[in-house]
Amino acid sequence: MEAFKLMRELKTNFEQESIYLPREKGLDLLETTLENDKQISARCRDAKVEDLWSLTSFFGYSTQTFVQAVNLLDRFLAMMKIQPKHLSCIAISCLHIAAKLVEEECNISSSHDLIRISQCKFTISDLNRMEKIISEKLNFQCKAITAFTFLQLYHEMTILHTSERKTSLSLDKLEAQLKACLCRIVFSKAKPSVLALSLLAQEIEAIQSVDMLEISQCIQRHLKIADGELFYWRELVAKCMTDYSSPECSKPDNKKLVWILSRRTAQNLHSSYYSVPELPTIPEGGWDESGSEDSCEDMSCGEDSLSSGEDSLSSDTEAACAPPHFHQRISAPHSQGDSARLGAQCHF
């Protein structure tokens, strides 16, 4: 009965996964965009996803929350033309939406803390309005079927059908590998079912389990995933894991961070938050079939604009376009007596 339930759930998710895929044309445009101060490039997007990974660890959020946030971000960026100065507000809004969808209410950080820790220059009002904009543009289909959804199902099915070395197939390790992949925009083009199966098949090959390999092949046949498609994404996953495992690449901590602040720094953070100017007005421009920009309208969808003040996010633009790396330190204006404790690094 458990196996039947898992197969039925797998089929249902497989039939609906395409609904939550980012527009491929929009992703292509991001990949071909050169870095400038007017449009978001793939490099800016990847750096911002790494920031979300670090914030996910800091607040103790689950892998599911992170993956949901990345899905929301990619779907929105692939649909709308966004200026780099607005990227931070969009990314943090996606993380907050995802947390409210996934986490227990008592574990969700407040809007105030989220903005303060991320050190982004916008207000709670800006965050709330941006969340509303994102939800409306995505037709309120926020809780997506993602690669994490399939990864959990594949893992359960594999463990259920084999008694061989059950502890050798680590879901935590697969989750860490998935998060590393999502820091590269190319994997946003993969079907969630295929990306998850690519990760599973590669790990099964690494532990050399014949029984588990047969199960993964059975899943592939059941979902009618072509050999060529699976091979293509397995190659990309393998390359990503090789790069990630290199000594030159540092990894974000996979554990919740503990940040100890002196009273002086806490007061500075508190006062600086209230002095932040509001986010400037965000013009709307979507990707049409020719890649040109739609006519502009207010992204608040009929509400008051986010603000009409001076452009105040130049520093966000610089941060968003920083060279991508797999370790982001969440820092704050500090003074003597501050300290930060980071848990052990997570390795594959």
Automatic annotation (TrEMBL):
Biased composition (Low complexity): 302-315
Alphabetical list of SUPFAM superfamilies matching this protein: Cyclin-like (SSF47954)
Every Cyclin-like domain range: 50-136
This protein's record includes keyword Nucleotide-binding: no
Annotated Acidic residues bias: 286-301
Keyword Endoplasmic reticulum appears in the UniProt entry: no
SMART domains for this protein: CYCLIN
InterPro entries: Cyclin, Cyclin-like_dom, Cyclin-like_sf, Cyclin_N
A UniProt-annotated Pfam family: Cyclin_N
Region annotation (Disordered) ranges: 284-319
UniProtKB keywords: Cyclin
Family membership: Belongs to the cyclin family.
Name of the protein in its database record: Cyclin-like domain-containing protein
Species of origin: Synaphobranchus kaupii (Kaup's arrowtooth eel)
